[in-house]
């Protein structure tokens, strides 16, 4: 693998940043300054330092993002900003994509990755990976309506949803919903089937991942090694 590509796929630097660092003797390969950004290295055997810091090779990247309103869950869009635009260029060059979708006006936890196999397994209906959402609705819900929600509802197009858990707050207009599937606008359509309307929706967990309390809206970070291990285990 070329050195500049290695620095790119590890989200260390863009190709232009890598070239500048090499010219400044700031990139070491096995302890020796690299002569060119195009030199070939073995990611599994060679050691690389960039500006004094060791670079660890990773086959895939996993980013947790606190999605704000107004951003679409796509890699590109001709009209609205995408969630990838919240990341710096050295990450957007990795080929990341959203693992699952949140509506434009839905906030909260989003997983971005370049691991297509993991994304496919996490989103497969057969695996029943749970997703939890905090919600508010326009009108108070009754216990009878919550029971219908838990049994599964027939939507306006005739689709019958799988049972979904709902924990209702004392005010009867908010709570937490847990889904094991993810149809288009599913929660909004389920509430419409109950003649109600979602006014706020925020995903707070996805499988073993929980939205960190210190991750502000629009902020992101790479998964910790513990979070990554839990995520990979959930997809097995």
List the helices and strands and how they pair.
Blueprint: H1 3-9, H2 15-23, E1 27-29, E2 32-33, E3 48-50, E4 53-54, E5 62-67, H3 89-92, E6 97-98, E7 107-113, H4 116-123, E8 131-137, H5 143-151, E9 165-168, E10 174-179, H6 186-193, E11 198-206, E12 209-210, E13 220-222, H7 225-234
Parallel strand pairs: 7-11
Antiparallel strand pairs: 1-2, 1-3, 3-4, 5-7, 5-13, 6-7, 8-10, 8-11, 9-10, 11-12
List the keywords.
Structural Genomics Hypothetical 15.5 Kd Protein In mrcA-pckA Intergenic Region, Chain A; 7 helices; Alpha-Beta Plaits; alpha+beta; 236 residues; 13 strands; 9-stranded mixed beta sheet; 4-stranded antiparallel beta sheet
Give me a quick take on this structure.
This protein is α+β, with helices and mostly antiparallel strands.
Overview of the molecule:
With 236 residues, the protein is an alpha+beta fold. The protein folds into 3 domains: 3-54, RNA-binding S4 domain (Structural Genomics Hypothetical 15.5 Kd Protein In mrcA-pckA Intergenic Region, Chain A, Roll), CATH 3.10.290; 62-123 and 217-234, Alpha-Beta Plaits, CATH 3.30.70.580; 130-206, Alpha-L RNA-binding motif (Alpha-Beta Plaits). It contains 7 helices and 13 strands. The protein has helices spanning 3-9, 15-23, 89-92, 116-123, 143-151, 186-193, 225-234; strands at 27-29, 32-33, 48-50, 53-54, 62-67, 97-98, 107-113, 131-137, 165-168, 174-179, 198-206, 209-210, 220-222. Strands 5, 6, 7, 8, 9, 10, 11, 12 and 13 form a 9-stranded mixed sheet that branches. Strands 2-1-3-4 form a 4-stranded antiparallel sheet. Strand 6 (97-98) and strand 7 (107-113) form a beta hairpin. The radius of gyration is 22 Å and the shape is elongated. The two termini are 29 Å apart. The mean pLDDT is 93.
């Amino acid at each position: 693998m070329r050195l500049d590509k290695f620095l790119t796929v590890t989200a260390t630097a863009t190709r232009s940043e890598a070239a500048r660092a090499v010219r400044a003797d700031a990139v070491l390969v096995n302890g020796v300054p690299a002569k060119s950004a195009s030199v070939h290295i073995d990611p599994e055997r060679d050691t690389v330092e960039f500006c004094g810091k060791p670079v660890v090779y990773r086959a895939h990247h996993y980013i947790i993002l606190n999605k704000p309103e107004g951003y679409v869950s796509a890699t590109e869009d001709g009209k609205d900003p995408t969630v990838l635009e919240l990341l710096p260029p050295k990450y957007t060059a990795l080929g990341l994509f959203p693992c699952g979708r949140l509506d434009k006006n839905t906030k909260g936890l989003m997983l971005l990755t370049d691991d297509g196999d993991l994304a496919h397994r996490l989103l497969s209906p057969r695996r029943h990976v749970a997703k939890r959402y905090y919600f508010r609705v326009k009108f108070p819900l009754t216990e009878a309506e919550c029971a219908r929600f838990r049994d599964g509802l027939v939507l306006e197009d005739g689709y019958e949803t799988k049972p979904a858990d709902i924990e209702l707050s004392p005010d009867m207009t908010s709570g937490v919903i847990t889904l094991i599937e993810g149809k288009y606008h599913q929660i909004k359509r389920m509430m419409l089937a109950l003649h109600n309307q979602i006014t706020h929706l925020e995903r707070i967990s996805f499988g073993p991942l929980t939205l960190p309390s210190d991750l502000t809206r629009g902020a992101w970070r790479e998964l910790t090694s513990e979070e990554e291990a839990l995520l990979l285990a959930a997809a097995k």
